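Known limitations

C-alpha cells in this collection are predictions and should be treated as such. Users comparing against experimental data should check residue numbering before alignment. To illustrate the layout, the record for DNA-binding protein is reproduced below. The input appears on top and the generated C-alpha cells appear beneath it.
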Amino acid sequence: MAADITMGSSVRAKGILQEIQARLPSAFKKAISLDGVDLVLAMSADEKTAFNAALSVIAKAMDEAPTLPVIPREIQDILGMKTSERHRWLADGRLPSAGTRTVRLAGRARQITFHVFDPKVVEDLLDRGAVDEWRVEDAEAKAEKRRNAAYQAKLTRLARKSSKPSKKRGNDVDEPASRLRGWEDFDIDGLLR
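Generated C-alpha cells:
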C-alpha cells in the first residue's frame, strides 16, 4: 500500500485490509494478508480465475482507499494523540468530524456509534503539526485556569478572615469568667495570653 493511503499508520493499513476482506467472498478472506504495509494475496496456481476475481475486488478497494473515512483508532495512531485528547478536541470543534458511523460488533447485541474523519483533513492536520499547537494551547489554558482558581481561593480566604470578628489579645476579658473571684490576679500574671 502506498504511504499516502495509510498516512504512515499500521493501524490504518490494518483497517484497509479489513475493509478489503469485508468485500471479498468468505472463501478468499484468509488468502489476503498484511506484511508490514504490503498486501499479499496468496492462492494456489490452479485457482487462477478466483485469483483474478479477488484481484479485481482488491484493485477496486485500493482505488477507493484514499477516500475511506478515518476511524478513531486510526486518527489516534496517525496524529499520535490520546483518546482523551481526541474527545476534548472533537468536543471543542478543533478536530472536525466528517460524520458518524454505527456498527454492530461481532458477537454483541448492541451497536456502537463513533465519529469518522475526512482523510484530507487528517492529512492537513498532520502536515501543519496542529496537534502540537493544540497541546501547547491546552497547557496554557490549564495553567491559566489554575492561576484563576488559586486567586479565587485567596479571595475566599480573605473574605472569610474579614467576616470573622477579630479578637484582641490581652485586654478583652471573658464576661462570664470576670465574675469569678480572683480572676483579675490570674489575668495579671499573663497566663491567658
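For this record: The radius of gyration is 34 Å. The chain is about 55% helix and 10% strand. Please report discrepancies through the issue tracker.
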